[in-house]
Write a structure and sequence with these properties.
24 strands, 14-stranded parallel β-sheet, alpha/beta, single chain
């Protein structure tokens, strides 16, 4: 195949190429991109790309390379992107990358690498993106370019990890490694700039508070597939900038306390799905999440939702509730009312699991009014009781006034009686003195002449 010598981009994907050498490209010095992905390359000769001084992108993914030598990429001083993913590499020579000092992106994912030499990346002053995902690494000590922004170490066998002096690192994926409790505040140093952190499938028994307290600028956090049984109050209290949180497929998780999400006022998306033992949500759980718009509660063990949670549901823009064993009784009425308040009246993916008479029925279409008393909001209930409360207050006031009047009358009567008794007490001795001072003369009782005869006074 003859190519024009001034060609700049060469893409030869999905061909049966098994080997390339210096003769393949020596007459094409203007090349800036070469893509040999998805071939059957088992070998690349030394100095194959020696003439490609302008080459910036080299893609060799999806081949059968088992070995790379120090001279394989000789002459590629201007290379910016190198993709060696999905090959069969088991090791890399320590001086391999010295020929590419300006490398910015390096993809070594999905090989069979078991060890990374400590100095492999030391000469890469401009490296910003590194992927070692899908290998067989058991330990890693990385102290590399201070410009590194994205690091993917997922799907390895890491049990020991030391990451130091990466002040510009914004994205770190550690998922699917058996790190467990080995991931702590001492193994990850100076990572304050991280905004994306994936800690899924690490075998964690509890949220790594030591690590989370360091990454206060975090925007996206993934804690799926761990062994949590509960998330205690204050778990995420230092993550005030967090916008997206995933807590899915934690099969031991039974409790998320309402205090666990305190401080997450900026959270807009919460995925709390696939936790089969999570049978209830604590009242007030969503109350601190004033910015929440996306909520995924699918495939949990929820049987009902508290009225406070149901009221918060109405402000969401995206909601998933399917796959829960809903018990269609009065406790489910708040949820049904909230869903209808969102304009959902047609059949949905929410079905009753209990009672047996309603099993398989759509939650939206089940007539709960025949099973439950009318559901009133707290404001309606307060409005209904307002006249009664006012009447009670009025009656109580009138009783107080009447009591005061009676008390005054009784007091006055008692005072009058007391004054009368006092007057009698003072004047009784005076009457006795009058009878002694004024004695009736005895001759008054002799007789009085009337009609020519004397009549005794006693007969008058």
């Amino acid at each position: 195949m003859t190519l024009h010598p001034a060609i700049q981009r060469l893409i030869l994907q999905y061909n049966p190429l098994e080997e390339v050498g210096s003769a393949s490209f020596q007459f094409h010095p203007e090349l800036t991109l070469v893509d040999l992905s998805r071939n059957s390359l088992a070998r690349i000769q030394d100095k194959t790309f020696e003439a490609q001084k302008r080459l910036t992108v080299l893609r060799l993914a999806g081949n059968q390379l088992t070995r790379i030598d120090n001279l394989t990429f000789y002459g590629l001083e201007g290379l910016r992107v190198l993709d060696l993913s999905s090959n069969l590499l088991t090791s890399l020579p320590v001086n391999l990358l010295e020929a590419m000092p300006n490398l910015e992106e390096l993809n070594l994912a999905n090989n069979r690498l078991q060890n990374i030499e400590p100095g492999l990346f030391s000469g890469l002053c401009c490296l910003r993106k590194l992927s070692l995902a899908g290998n067989q690494l058991t330990s890693l000590h990385l102290n590399t370019s201070s410009l590194l922004e994205e690091l993917d170490l997922s799907n390895n066998s890491l049990i020991s990890l030391q990451l130091e002096h990466l002040p510009h690192l914004t994205s770190l994926d550690l998922s699917s490694n058996p790190l467990g409790s080995n991931i702590n505040s001492t193994s990850l140093v100076q990572l304050s700039a991280i905004s994306f952190l994936n800690l899924s499938n690490l075998g964690l028994q509890a949220a790594p508070s030591g690590l989370l307290n360091q990454v206060k600028n975090l925007r996206r956090l993934f804690l799926n597939g761990n062994n949590f049984t509960a998330l205690a109050a204050g778990t995420f209290s230092e993550l005030g900038q967090l916008q997206h949180l995933e807590l899915a497929d934690n099969h031991q998780l039974e409790l998320v306390t309402s205090g666990a999400v305190l401080g997450l006022a900026q959270l807009t998306s919460l995925r709390l799905a696939g936790n089969q033992r999570l049978s209830r949500l604590e009242p007030g759980l969503l109350e601190p999440l004033t910015s929440l718009r996306h909520l995924d509660l699918e495939q949990n063990g929820l049987t009902s939702i508290d009225v406070e949670i149901a009221s918060a549901v109405q402000r969401l823009g995206f909601l998933r509730l399917a796959g829960n064993p809903w018990v269609c009784n009065c406790d489910l009425r708040p949820l049904q009312t909230a869903l209808m308040g969102r304009g959902i009246t047609a059949p949905s993916l929410l079905v009753c699991d209990q009672p047996l008479s309603l099993q398989g029925r759509d939650v939206i279409t089940v007539n709960l009014t025949t099973l439950c008393p009318p559901l009133e909001s707290s404001s309606t209930t307060a409005a209904n009781y307002t006249p009664l409360i006012a009447a009670c207050v009025t009656v109580l006031f009138l009783l107080c006034v009447a009591g005061a009047i009676v008390s005054v009358v009784l007091y006055r009567r008692r005072s009058a009686v007391s004054n009368r008794r006092q007057w009698l007490t003072q004047h009784r001795p005076a009457a006795g003195r009058l009878s002694k001072d004024y004695q009736i003369p005895a001759d008054l009782f002799h007789s009085v002449p009337i009609g020519g005869r004397d009549i005794p006074v006693t007969e008058l």
